Amino acid sequence: MNPFRYAQATDAGTAVTTLQGDRGMRYIAGGTNILDLMKDDVERPTLLLDITHLPLRSIDAGPHGIRLGSLATMADVADAPAVKAGFPVVSQALLAGASPQLRNMATIGGNIMQRTRCAYFRDVSQACNKRTPGNGCSAIGGQNRNHAVIGTSDHCICTHPSDFAVALMSVDALVHVRGAGGVRTIPIAAFHVLPGATPNRETVLEHGDLIEAIELPASPHARNSAYVKVRDRASYEFALVSVAAALETTAGVIRTARIALGGVAPKPWRSHEAEAALIGRPVTAETFAAAAVAATSGMRGYGKNDFKITLTQRTVTRALEHAGGLA
Amino acid sequence: MIDSSKPTRRRFLVRAACSTAVVAGLQGARLFPAAQAASVTLTARGPQPVTMTLNVNGRAHTLALEPRVTLLDALRERLDLTGTKKGCDQGTCGACTVLVDGKRVNACFTLAIMTQGRSITTIEGLANGDQLHPMQAAFLEHDGFQCGYCTPGQIISAVALVHEKRPLDNASVREWMSGNICRCGAYPNIVAAVQSVAGGQA
What we know:
heterodimer, A: 327 residues, 28% helix, B: alpha+beta
Protein backbone atom coordinates (compact mmCIF):
# COMPACT_ATOMS: atom_id res chain seq x y z
CA MET A 1 0.00 0.00 0.00
CA ASN A 2 1.13 3.57 -0.67
CA PRO A 3 1.75 5.76 2.38
CA PHE A 4 -1.31 7.80 3.32
CA ARG A 5 -2.67 9.95 6.10
CA TYR A 6 -5.53 8.95 8.34
CA ALA A 7 -8.28 10.94 10.01
CA GLN A 8 -11.48 10.10 11.88
CA ALA A 9 -14.73 11.78 10.90
CA THR A 10 -16.70 13.14 13.83
CA ASP A 11 -19.79 14.23 11.93
CA ALA A 12 -21.20 13.42 8.51
CA GLY A 13 -21.36 17.00 7.22
CA THR A 14 -17.69 17.62 7.91
CA ALA A 15 -16.79 14.30 6.34
CA VAL A 16 -18.57 15.24 3.11
CA THR A 17 -17.02 18.73 2.99
CA THR A 18 -13.56 17.34 3.66
CA LEU A 19 -13.70 14.79 0.84
CA GLN A 20 -15.26 17.22 -1.61
CA GLY A 21 -12.21 19.40 -1.26
CA ASP A 22 -9.74 16.71 -2.37
CA ARG A 23 -10.30 13.99 -4.95
CA GLY A 24 -7.31 12.09 -3.59
CA MET A 25 -9.13 11.28 -0.34
CA ARG A 26 -11.29 8.23 0.25
CA TYR A 27 -13.68 7.08 2.96
CA ILE A 28 -12.91 3.89 4.82
CA ALA A 29 -15.42 1.86 6.84
CA GLY A 30 -15.15 -1.94 6.69
CA GLY A 31 -12.10 -1.58 4.47
CA THR A 32 -12.60 -4.89 2.67
CA ASN A 33 -12.74 -3.28 -0.77
CA ILE A 34 -10.59 -0.13 -0.51
CA LEU A 35 -7.67 -1.90 1.20
CA ASP A 36 -7.84 -4.73 -1.34
CA LEU A 37 -7.61 -2.21 -4.18
CA MET A 38 -4.82 -0.33 -2.43
CA LYS A 39 -2.79 -3.51 -2.07
CA ASP A 40 -3.12 -3.93 -5.85
CA ASP A 41 -2.18 -0.27 -6.46
CA VAL A 42 -5.52 0.31 -8.19
CA GLU A 43 -6.31 2.89 -5.50
CA ARG A 44 -3.62 5.21 -4.09
CA PRO A 45 -5.42 7.64 -1.76
CA THR A 46 -3.58 10.50 -0.08
CA LEU A 47 -5.80 10.22 2.98
CA LEU A 48 -8.31 7.72 4.37
CA LEU A 49 -11.16 9.29 6.29
CA ASP A 50 -12.43 6.75 8.82
CA ILE A 51 -16.22 7.08 9.03
CA THR A 52 -16.79 4.16 11.40
CA HIS A 53 -17.37 6.46 14.38
CA LEU A 54 -20.37 8.17 12.76
CA PRO A 55 -23.77 7.19 14.24
CA LEU A 56 -24.97 5.35 11.09
CA ARG A 57 -25.06 1.78 12.35
CA SER A 58 -28.61 1.23 13.58
CA ILE A 59 -31.29 -0.96 12.01
CA ASP A 60 -34.73 0.52 12.61
CA ALA A 61 -37.82 -1.48 11.69
CA GLY A 62 -41.29 0.06 11.56
CA PRO A 63 -44.68 -0.63 9.96
CA HIS A 64 -43.62 0.91 6.65
CA GLY A 65 -40.30 -0.81 6.30
CA ILE A 66 -36.76 -0.87 7.62
CA ARG A 67 -34.09 1.82 7.68
CA LEU A 68 -30.62 0.30 7.56
CA GLY A 69 -27.78 2.55 8.70
CA SER A 70 -25.06 2.51 6.07
CA LEU A 71 -22.47 1.36 8.61
CA ALA A 72 -24.48 -1.71 9.62
CA THR A 73 -22.43 -4.74 8.64
CA MET A 74 -23.54 -7.39 6.18
CA ALA A 75 -23.73 -9.81 9.14
CA ASP A 76 -25.88 -7.41 11.21
CA VAL A 77 -28.41 -6.97 8.42
CA ALA A 78 -28.48 -10.62 7.32
CA ASP A 79 -29.27 -11.72 10.89
CA ALA A 80 -31.83 -9.00 11.68
CA PRO A 81 -35.21 -10.71 12.34
CA ALA A 82 -37.17 -7.92 10.61
CA VAL A 83 -35.05 -8.31 7.47
CA LYS A 84 -35.46 -12.09 7.45
CA ALA A 85 -39.22 -11.82 7.86
CA GLY A 86 -40.03 -8.90 5.59
CA PHE A 87 -37.23 -9.13 3.04
CA PRO A 88 -35.96 -12.73 2.82
CA VAL A 89 -34.25 -11.99 -0.50
CA VAL A 90 -32.05 -9.39 1.22
CA SER A 91 -30.94 -11.71 4.02
CA GLN A 92 -30.34 -14.57 1.58
CA ALA A 93 -28.29 -12.40 -0.78
CA LEU A 94 -26.11 -11.12 2.06
CA LEU A 95 -25.46 -14.63 3.34
CA ALA A 96 -24.59 -15.76 -0.19
CA GLY A 97 -21.84 -13.15 -0.35
CA ALA A 98 -18.26 -13.13 0.95
CA SER A 99 -17.35 -15.12 4.11
CA PRO A 100 -18.44 -14.92 7.75
CA GLN A 101 -15.30 -12.89 8.54
CA LEU A 102 -15.80 -10.42 5.70
CA ARG A 103 -19.51 -10.06 6.50
CA ASN A 104 -18.52 -9.02 10.05
CA MET A 105 -16.37 -6.24 8.56
CA ALA A 106 -18.02 -5.04 5.36
CA THR A 107 -20.73 -2.39 5.69
CA ILE A 108 -23.84 -2.28 3.53
CA GLY A 109 -23.01 1.22 2.30
CA GLY A 110 -19.63 0.00 1.12
CA ASN A 111 -21.24 -3.09 -0.36
CA ILE A 112 -23.17 -1.19 -3.01
CA MET A 113 -20.06 0.92 -3.75
CA GLN A 114 -17.73 -2.04 -4.29
CA ARG A 115 -15.74 -2.17 -7.50
CA THR A 116 -15.83 -4.91 -10.10
CA ARG A 117 -13.88 -8.14 -9.67
CA CYS A 118 -12.75 -8.02 -13.32
CA ALA A 119 -9.17 -9.36 -13.19
CA TYR A 120 -8.01 -6.80 -15.76
CA PHE A 121 -9.31 -3.92 -13.64
CA ARG A 122 -7.30 -5.22 -10.69
CA ASP A 123 -4.08 -5.82 -12.64
CA VAL A 124 -2.43 -2.45 -13.28
CA SER A 125 -0.33 -3.97 -16.10
CA GLN A 126 -3.49 -4.62 -18.15
CA ALA A 127 -5.59 -2.27 -20.23
CA CYS A 128 -8.74 -1.09 -18.46
CA ASN A 129 -10.92 1.89 -19.33
CA LYS A 130 -12.49 1.82 -15.88
CA ARG A 131 -9.15 2.18 -14.11
CA THR A 132 -7.54 4.47 -16.69
CA PRO A 133 -10.00 6.11 -19.13
CA GLY A 134 -8.94 5.68 -22.76
CA ASN A 135 -6.65 2.78 -21.89
CA GLY A 136 -8.65 0.08 -23.72
CA CYS A 137 -10.34 -3.09 -22.45
CA SER A 138 -8.38 -6.34 -22.14
CA ALA A 139 -11.52 -8.30 -21.29
CA ILE A 140 -13.10 -7.85 -24.74
CA GLY A 141 -11.42 -10.65 -26.64
CA GLY A 142 -9.65 -11.79 -23.48
CA GLN A 143 -10.52 -14.14 -20.63
CA ASN A 144 -14.14 -13.03 -20.34
CA ARG A 145 -15.80 -16.11 -18.86
CA ASN A 146 -16.90 -14.09 -15.82
CA HIS A 147 -17.97 -11.01 -17.77
CA ALA A 148 -21.26 -9.39 -18.66
CA VAL A 149 -23.77 -10.34 -21.35
CA ILE A 150 -26.03 -7.30 -21.18
CA GLY A 151 -25.63 -3.58 -20.50
CA THR A 152 -22.07 -3.62 -21.82
CA SER A 153 -20.34 -1.13 -24.11
CA ASP A 154 -17.31 -1.16 -26.42
CA HIS A 155 -15.39 0.29 -23.47
CA CYS A 156 -16.27 -2.12 -20.66
CA ILE A 157 -17.89 -5.54 -20.19
CA CYS A 158 -17.35 -5.99 -16.45
CA THR A 159 -19.94 -7.28 -14.00
CA HIS A 160 -21.05 -5.65 -10.78
CA PRO A 161 -20.02 -7.92 -7.88
CA SER A 162 -22.68 -7.18 -5.25
CA ASP A 163 -25.35 -9.76 -4.38
CA PHE A 164 -26.97 -7.37 -1.90
CA ALA A 165 -27.53 -4.68 -4.56
CA VAL A 166 -29.33 -7.22 -6.77
CA ALA A 167 -31.66 -8.05 -3.89
CA LEU A 168 -32.24 -4.33 -3.25
CA MET A 169 -33.44 -3.97 -6.85
CA SER A 170 -36.15 -6.56 -6.23
CA VAL A 171 -37.56 -4.73 -3.19
CA ASP A 172 -37.45 -1.16 -4.54
CA ALA A 173 -34.87 0.03 -1.98
CA LEU A 174 -34.01 3.70 -1.51
CA VAL A 175 -30.52 5.06 -0.87
CA HIS A 176 -30.22 8.13 1.35
CA VAL A 177 -27.12 10.12 0.48
CA ARG A 178 -25.58 13.19 2.10
CA GLY A 179 -23.93 15.54 -0.36
CA ALA A 180 -23.17 19.18 -0.85
CA GLY A 181 -26.84 20.19 -0.75
CA GLY A 182 -27.89 18.06 2.21
CA VAL A 183 -29.51 14.62 2.14
CA ARG A 184 -31.20 13.31 -1.02
CA THR A 185 -32.90 10.01 -1.80
CA ILE A 186 -31.96 7.88 -4.79
CA PRO A 187 -33.95 4.80 -5.84
CA ILE A 188 -31.56 1.84 -6.09
CA ALA A 189 -32.51 1.39 -9.76
CA ALA A 190 -31.12 4.88 -10.47
CA PHE A 191 -28.05 4.54 -8.25
CA HIS A 192 -25.65 2.59 -10.50
CA VAL A 193 -24.97 3.64 -14.09
CA LEU A 194 -23.98 1.65 -17.15
CA PRO A 195 -20.41 2.02 -18.46
CA GLY A 196 -21.14 3.57 -21.87
CA ALA A 197 -18.10 5.64 -22.86
CA THR A 198 -17.21 6.44 -19.21
CA PRO A 199 -16.80 3.14 -17.35
CA ASN A 200 -14.82 4.94 -14.65
CA ARG A 201 -18.17 6.37 -13.49
CA GLU A 202 -20.15 3.65 -11.71
CA THR A 203 -22.82 5.48 -9.70
CA VAL A 204 -24.61 8.83 -9.73
CA LEU A 205 -22.70 9.89 -6.61
CA GLU A 206 -20.28 12.80 -6.65
CA HIS A 207 -16.91 12.59 -4.93
CA GLY A 208 -17.51 13.10 -1.23
CA ASP A 209 -21.14 12.00 -1.22
CA LEU A 210 -21.79 9.79 1.81
CA ILE A 211 -24.41 7.06 1.97
CA GLU A 212 -26.20 7.42 5.31
CA ALA A 213 -28.90 4.77 5.06
CA ILE A 214 -30.60 2.24 2.83
CA GLU A 215 -34.37 2.07 3.20
CA LEU A 216 -36.38 -1.07 2.51
CA PRO A 217 -40.06 -0.15 1.95
CA ALA A 218 -42.41 -2.87 3.19
CA SER A 219 -44.37 -4.58 0.40
CA PRO A 220 -46.18 -7.87 -0.27
CA HIS A 221 -43.68 -8.85 -2.98
CA ALA A 222 -40.71 -8.17 -0.69
CA ARG A 223 -42.13 -10.63 1.84
CA ASN A 224 -42.45 -13.23 -0.92
CA SER A 225 -38.94 -13.15 -2.28
CA ALA A 226 -35.92 -15.36 -2.85
CA TYR A 227 -32.29 -15.15 -3.97
CA VAL A 228 -30.55 -17.88 -5.96
CA LYS A 229 -26.84 -17.63 -6.73
CA VAL A 230 -24.90 -19.94 -9.05
CA ARG A 231 -21.11 -19.96 -8.73
CA ASP A 232 -18.06 -22.09 -9.41
CA ARG A 233 -17.95 -23.44 -5.85
CA ALA A 234 -20.58 -23.90 -3.19
CA SER A 235 -19.62 -20.91 -1.04
CA TYR A 236 -17.38 -17.85 -0.75
CA GLU A 237 -17.37 -16.98 -4.45
CA PHE A 238 -18.79 -14.30 -6.70
CA ALA A 239 -21.80 -15.08 -8.87
CA LEU A 240 -21.66 -16.47 -12.36
CA VAL A 241 -25.38 -15.70 -12.42
CA SER A 242 -27.70 -14.73 -9.60
CA VAL A 243 -31.38 -13.90 -9.48
CA ALA A 244 -33.51 -12.00 -6.98
CA ALA A 245 -37.18 -12.77 -7.46
CA ALA A 246 -40.10 -11.15 -5.62
CA LEU A 247 -43.76 -11.95 -6.24
CA GLU A 248 -47.12 -10.76 -4.98
CA THR A 249 -49.87 -13.22 -5.81
CA THR A 250 -53.62 -13.26 -5.29
CA ALA A 251 -55.54 -16.52 -5.71
CA GLY A 252 -52.71 -18.06 -7.69
CA VAL A 253 -52.31 -15.10 -10.04
CA ILE A 254 -49.21 -12.89 -10.06
CA ARG A 255 -50.05 -9.24 -9.26
CA THR A 256 -46.58 -7.78 -8.80
CA ALA A 257 -43.23 -9.17 -9.91
CA ARG A 258 -39.62 -8.09 -9.58
CA ILE A 259 -36.77 -9.94 -11.30
CA ALA A 260 -33.23 -8.65 -10.80
CA LEU A 261 -30.10 -10.30 -12.16
CA GLY A 262 -26.53 -10.39 -10.88
CA GLY A 263 -23.31 -11.57 -12.53
CA VAL A 264 -24.55 -10.68 -16.02
CA ALA A 265 -24.32 -6.88 -16.25
CA PRO A 266 -22.12 -3.95 -15.20
CA LYS A 267 -24.83 -2.93 -12.74
CA PRO A 268 -27.52 -4.80 -10.84
CA TRP A 269 -29.91 -5.59 -13.69
CA ARG A 270 -33.68 -5.42 -13.46
CA SER A 271 -35.47 -7.43 -16.13
CA HIS A 272 -38.67 -5.61 -17.01
CA GLU A 273 -39.17 -8.15 -19.81
CA ALA A 274 -39.31 -11.03 -17.34
CA GLU A 275 -41.63 -9.09 -15.06
CA ALA A 276 -44.01 -8.36 -17.95
CA ALA A 277 -44.14 -12.10 -18.69
CA LEU A 278 -45.23 -12.77 -15.10
CA ILE A 279 -47.83 -10.12 -14.27
CA GLY A 280 -51.40 -11.32 -14.62
CA ARG A 281 -50.28 -14.91 -15.23
CA PRO A 282 -50.92 -17.95 -13.02
CA VAL A 283 -48.21 -19.28 -10.71
CA THR A 284 -47.21 -22.24 -12.85
CA ALA A 285 -44.04 -23.80 -14.23
CA GLU A 286 -45.09 -22.65 -17.72
CA THR A 287 -45.34 -19.02 -16.63
CA PHE A 288 -41.92 -19.21 -15.00
CA ALA A 289 -40.38 -20.80 -18.10
CA ALA A 290 -41.70 -18.00 -20.29
CA ALA A 291 -40.37 -15.38 -17.87
CA ALA A 292 -36.97 -17.09 -17.86
CA VAL A 293 -36.73 -16.81 -21.65
CA ALA A 294 -37.88 -13.18 -21.53
CA ALA A 295 -35.16 -12.38 -18.97
CA THR A 296 -32.45 -13.08 -21.53
CA SER A 297 -33.80 -10.92 -24.32
CA GLY A 298 -31.06 -8.57 -25.48
CA MET A 299 -28.25 -10.67 -24.01
CA ARG A 300 -25.15 -11.39 -26.08
CA GLY A 301 -22.01 -13.29 -25.12
CA TYR A 302 -18.38 -12.40 -25.75
CA GLY A 303 -17.14 -15.93 -26.48
CA LYS A 304 -16.18 -17.47 -23.18
CA ASN A 305 -19.26 -16.26 -21.31
CA ASP A 306 -21.97 -17.36 -23.75
CA PHE A 307 -23.05 -20.03 -21.26
CA LYS A 308 -24.38 -17.33 -18.94
CA ILE A 309 -27.41 -16.78 -21.17
CA THR A 310 -28.70 -20.34 -20.74
CA LEU A 311 -27.63 -20.29 -17.11
CA THR A 312 -29.66 -17.12 -16.56
CA GLN A 313 -32.81 -18.84 -17.80
CA ARG A 314 -32.30 -21.78 -15.47
CA THR A 315 -31.51 -19.54 -12.51
CA VAL A 316 -34.56 -17.33 -13.08
CA THR A 317 -36.73 -20.44 -13.13
CA ARG A 318 -35.20 -21.70 -9.88
CA ALA A 319 -35.58 -18.34 -8.12
CA LEU A 320 -39.22 -18.05 -9.21
CA GLU A 321 -39.91 -21.56 -7.93
CA HIS A 322 -38.57 -20.49 -4.51
CA ALA A 323 -40.38 -17.16 -4.43
CA GLY A 324 -43.59 -18.67 -5.80
CA GLY A 325 -43.61 -21.65 -3.47
CA LEU A 326 -43.18 -24.28 -6.19
CA ALA A 327 -39.70 -25.41 -5.08
CA MET B 1 -12.05 49.23 2.29
CA ILE B 2 -11.88 45.57 1.48
CA ASP B 3 -11.30 44.36 -2.04
CA SER B 4 -13.46 41.27 -2.26
CA SER B 5 -11.60 40.02 -5.32
CA LYS B 6 -8.52 39.40 -3.22
CA PRO B 7 -8.33 36.65 -0.65
CA THR B 8 -8.90 37.89 2.86
CA ARG B 9 -6.30 37.08 5.45
CA ARG B 10 -8.70 34.65 7.05
CA ARG B 11 -9.36 32.77 3.80
CA PHE B 12 -5.66 32.74 3.10
CA LEU B 13 -4.92 31.14 6.45
CA VAL B 14 -7.54 28.49 5.90
CA ARG B 15 -6.18 27.65 2.46
CA ALA B 16 -2.62 27.67 3.67
CA ALA B 17 -3.46 25.34 6.53
CA CYS B 18 -5.33 23.06 4.19
CA SER B 19 -2.51 22.78 1.67
CA THR B 20 -0.01 22.23 4.47
CA ALA B 21 -2.08 19.34 5.70
CA VAL B 22 -2.51 17.83 2.27
CA VAL B 23 0.90 18.41 0.73
CA ALA B 24 3.25 18.18 3.64
CA GLY B 25 1.24 15.57 5.47
CA LEU B 26 2.41 16.68 8.88
CA GLN B 27 1.51 14.43 11.74
CA GLY B 28 -1.25 16.09 13.69
CA ALA B 29 -1.96 18.55 10.90
CA ARG B 30 -5.51 19.82 10.78
CA LEU B 31 -7.82 19.61 7.83
CA PHE B 32 -10.00 22.65 7.38
CA PRO B 33 -13.11 21.90 5.37
CA ALA B 34 -13.69 25.14 3.50
CA ALA B 35 -17.37 25.52 4.35
CA GLN B 36 -17.00 24.86 8.04
CA ALA B 37 -13.52 26.11 8.75
CA ALA B 38 -14.60 27.95 11.82
CA SER B 39 -16.63 25.20 13.47
CA VAL B 40 -15.18 21.72 13.02
CA THR B 41 -11.68 20.49 12.29
CA LEU B 42 -10.38 17.02 11.65
CA THR B 43 -6.98 15.89 12.76
CA ALA B 44 -5.01 13.91 10.18
CA ARG B 45 -2.14 11.67 11.23
CA GLY B 46 0.62 9.98 9.28
CA PRO B 47 1.93 8.93 6.86
CA GLN B 48 4.83 8.75 9.32
CA PRO B 49 4.48 6.36 12.27
CA VAL B 50 1.69 7.25 14.68
CA THR B 51 1.67 6.30 18.34
CA MET B 52 -1.22 3.97 19.11
CA THR B 53 -2.25 1.46 21.74
CA LEU B 54 -3.54 -1.98 20.78
CA ASN B 55 -5.26 -4.26 23.27
CA VAL B 56 -4.21 -7.80 22.33
CA ASN B 57 -5.08 -10.86 24.39
CA GLY B 58 -5.82 -8.69 27.42
CA ARG B 59 -2.56 -6.72 27.28
CA ALA B 60 -2.12 -3.14 26.12
CA HIS B 61 0.75 -2.55 23.68
CA THR B 62 1.81 0.96 22.73
CA LEU B 63 3.39 1.07 19.28
CA ALA B 64 4.42 3.57 16.62
CA LEU B 65 2.98 2.39 13.30
CA GLU B 66 2.25 4.01 9.96
CA PRO B 67 -1.50 4.23 9.24
CA ARG B 68 -1.03 1.77 6.36
CA VAL B 69 0.12 -1.07 8.65
CA THR B 70 -2.46 -3.84 8.84
CA LEU B 71 -3.41 -5.50 12.09
CA LEU B 72 -1.90 -8.70 10.65
CA ASP B 73 1.52 -7.13 10.14
CA ALA B 74 1.39 -5.37 13.50
CA LEU B 75 0.70 -8.67 15.27
CA ARG B 76 3.33 -10.66 13.43
CA GLU B 77 6.13 -8.17 12.80
CA ARG B 78 5.89 -5.91 15.84
CA LEU B 79 4.33 -7.97 18.62
CA ASP B 80 5.90 -11.31 17.61
CA LEU B 81 2.48 -12.94 17.73
CA THR B 82 3.21 -15.12 14.71
CA GLY B 83 0.44 -17.63 15.37
CA THR B 84 -1.82 -15.51 13.16
CA LYS B 85 -0.74 -16.44 9.63
CA LYS B 86 -0.37 -14.48 6.41
CA GLY B 87 -1.71 -16.58 3.56
CA CYS B 88 -3.15 -14.62 0.66
CA ASP B 89 -3.04 -11.16 2.32
CA GLN B 90 -6.17 -10.29 0.31
CA GLY B 91 -9.08 -11.60 2.32
CA THR B 92 -9.61 -14.85 0.48
CA CYS B 93 -8.00 -17.56 2.67
CA GLY B 94 -8.85 -16.83 6.31
CA ALA B 95 -5.40 -17.75 7.71
CA CYS B 96 -5.25 -14.33 9.39
CA THR B 97 -8.58 -14.65 11.23
CA VAL B 98 -8.64 -12.99 14.66
CA LEU B 99 -11.40 -11.81 16.97
CA VAL B 100 -12.05 -8.08 17.31
CA ASP B 101 -14.52 -7.35 20.10
CA GLY B 102 -15.43 -11.05 19.93
CA LYS B 103 -16.19 -11.06 16.20
CA ARG B 104 -14.09 -12.94 13.65
CA VAL B 105 -12.44 -10.73 11.05
CA ASN B 106 -9.59 -10.88 8.54
CA ALA B 107 -6.58 -9.12 10.08
CA CYS B 108 -5.09 -8.57 6.62
CA PHE B 109 -7.99 -6.23 5.73
CA THR B 110 -7.94 -4.40 9.06
CA LEU B 111 -5.80 -1.32 9.65
CA ALA B 112 -4.12 -1.49 13.05
CA ILE B 113 -4.90 2.19 13.63
CA MET B 114 -8.62 1.43 13.34
CA THR B 115 -8.52 -1.18 16.13
CA GLN B 116 -7.52 1.23 18.91
CA GLY B 117 -9.87 0.89 21.86
CA ARG B 118 -11.05 -2.51 20.70
CA SER B 119 -10.28 -5.92 22.16
CA ILE B 120 -8.22 -8.21 19.91
CA THR B 121 -7.90 -11.94 20.49
CA THR B 122 -5.40 -14.07 18.57
CA ILE B 123 -4.70 -17.79 18.67
CA GLU B 124 -2.11 -17.09 21.41
CA GLY B 125 -4.88 -15.71 23.60
CA LEU B 126 -7.14 -18.77 23.62
CA ALA B 127 -5.29 -21.12 25.98
CA ASN B 128 -5.32 -20.63 29.73
CA GLY B 129 -1.67 -21.18 30.56
CA ASP B 130 -0.90 -24.78 29.59
CA GLN B 131 -4.62 -25.59 29.45
CA LEU B 132 -5.69 -25.64 25.81
CA HIS B 133 -8.95 -24.02 24.75
CA PRO B 134 -11.52 -26.79 24.08
CA MET B 135 -11.42 -26.01 20.36
CA GLN B 136 -7.63 -26.38 20.28
CA ALA B 137 -7.95 -29.71 22.08
CA ALA B 138 -10.67 -30.83 19.68
CA PHE B 139 -8.51 -30.08 16.61
CA LEU B 140 -5.79 -32.28 18.14
CA GLU B 141 -8.20 -35.04 19.08
CA HIS B 142 -9.90 -35.10 15.66
CA ASP B 143 -6.68 -34.56 13.68
CA GLY B 144 -8.17 -31.41 12.15
CA PHE B 145 -5.05 -30.38 10.24
CA GLN B 146 -2.11 -31.61 8.24
CA CYS B 147 0.50 -28.90 7.56
CA GLY B 148 -1.06 -26.64 10.19
CA TYR B 149 -0.69 -23.32 8.39
CA CYS B 150 -4.41 -22.58 8.21
CA THR B 151 -5.08 -24.04 11.67
CA PRO B 152 -4.87 -20.89 13.85
CA GLY B 153 -7.38 -19.17 11.58
CA GLN B 154 -9.58 -22.27 11.48
CA ILE B 155 -9.61 -22.50 15.28
CA ILE B 156 -10.39 -18.81 15.81
CA SER B 157 -13.16 -19.02 13.22
CA ALA B 158 -14.53 -22.18 14.85
CA VAL B 159 -14.57 -20.52 18.28
CA ALA B 160 -16.60 -17.69 16.76
CA LEU B 161 -18.96 -20.10 14.99
CA VAL B 162 -19.80 -21.74 18.33
CA HIS B 163 -20.30 -18.36 19.96
CA GLU B 164 -22.61 -17.32 17.09
CA LYS B 165 -24.72 -20.46 17.75
CA ARG B 166 -24.77 -21.55 14.10
CA PRO B 167 -26.46 -24.83 13.10
CA LEU B 168 -24.25 -27.91 13.51
CA ASP B 169 -25.18 -30.17 10.61
CA ASN B 170 -22.31 -30.91 8.22
CA ALA B 171 -23.51 -28.56 5.50
CA SER B 172 -24.01 -25.66 7.91
CA VAL B 173 -20.62 -26.08 9.56
CA ARG B 174 -18.97 -26.17 6.13
CA GLU B 175 -20.85 -23.05 5.06
CA TRP B 176 -20.04 -21.14 8.25
CA MET B 177 -16.38 -22.23 8.06
CA SER B 178 -16.14 -21.36 4.35
CA GLY B 179 -14.02 -18.28 5.04
CA ASN B 180 -11.12 -20.55 6.01
CA ILE B 181 -9.42 -22.46 3.23
CA CYS B 182 -7.39 -25.63 3.97
CA ARG B 183 -5.18 -26.66 1.06
CA CYS B 184 -4.39 -29.99 2.71
CA GLY B 185 -8.11 -30.79 2.64
CA ALA B 186 -8.55 -31.59 6.32
CA TYR B 187 -12.16 -30.46 6.13
CA PRO B 188 -13.92 -33.64 7.34
CA ASN B 189 -11.86 -33.65 10.53
CA ILE B 190 -12.23 -29.89 11.00
CA VAL B 191 -16.02 -30.31 10.79
CA ALA B 192 -15.85 -33.13 13.34
CA ALA B 193 -13.77 -31.01 15.71
CA VAL B 194 -16.18 -28.07 15.48
CA GLN B 195 -19.19 -30.30 16.02
CA SER B 196 -17.62 -32.00 19.06
CA VAL B 197 -17.04 -28.70 20.85
CA ALA B 198 -20.30 -27.05 19.82
CA GLY B 199 -22.30 -30.18 20.64
CA GLY B 200 -20.62 -30.46 24.03
CA GLN B 201 -21.69 -26.94 24.91
CA ALA B 202 -25.23 -27.24 23.61
